[in-house]
Amino acid sequence: MKRERPAGSERALVIMAKAARRDHVKTRLAGSLSADEVIELYKCLVEDTVQLTRSVTADSLAIVCPSSDVSDLSAWLPEIEIVAQEGEGLAAALVSAFRVFIGRGYRRVVALDGDSPQIPRDTLEQAFRLLNNADVVLGPTIDGGYYLVGATALRAELFDHHRMGTGGALDSLLANARTLNLTTALTEPAYDVDEKSDLARLAQELDTFPSRAPRTARWLAQRKFRG
Fold first, then answer.
1. pLDDT in tens for each of the 227 residues of the chain?
2. Which end of the chain has fewer CB atoms within 10 angstroms, the N or the C?
């Protein structure tokens, strides 16, 4: 049954995540970590991301995931709404996030990667503020992708599933926005934790600022991970 938006609600914040299963998450770290370590790390990243989002002013908080992952995520994170995406892949997940929450009446929806807990909370607040004057807001990653996308309406044509996870994902989305005559704005650049070098960078950052992602910081410190 459709959940109605509470009166006066404006903001929905959505985390894109998967169930923490072997060969299902963070597969590019398999050469640097054991299968069990990949799962442990992913759980830390997602739990820290949930903690981050709880520090942001939002009227709704949820996780969007593949339909096959709903049961696992509901058992793992019972305190947060889990929404099944329609279709496969990240593009389908993003379309589902905006379809569901724009459909419920939220005026500004921001979708965030589940594995970038080091993002400052001010960056998420900034994304919502930028949506006051832009149709689409993006958080660019240093590898040419994006860790965040916000919008004020559902525009499925924005997302090219062929470019997801590539160095051209950001440029593709910006080009699609121009084609649709949509205004765009960018938040601060950041990085995803996909490769060993990303994890080393995160370990260095959290060694100095562990409060940004405390679970992940403890996990990395216990293993003395430096890349």
1. 345 544 446 999 999 999 999 999 999 998 889 999 999 999 999 999 999 999 999 999 999 999 999 999 999 999 999 999 999 888 999 999 999 999 999 999 999 999 889 999 999 999 999 999 999 999 999 989 999 999 999 988 898 766 555 568 899 999 999 999 999 999 999 998 988 999 999 999 999 999 999 999 999 999 876 65
2. N
CB-neighbour burial class of residue 34 (10 A; exposed 0-12, middle 13-18, buried 19+): exposed
Say whether 141 sits in a helix, a strand or coil. strand
Query: How far apart are the C-alpha atoms of 82 and 74, rounded to whole Å?
Result: 6
pTM score, whole prediction: 0.91
Say which residue the tokens 């939002």 belong to: 58
Domains in the chain: boundaries: 11-194
CATH for 11-194 (3.40.50.12280, 3.40.50.1370, 3.40.1280.10, 3.90.550.10): 3.90.550.10
Query: What SS3 state is found at 62?
Result: strand
Is residue 60 within 8 Å of residue 101, measured between CB atoms? yes
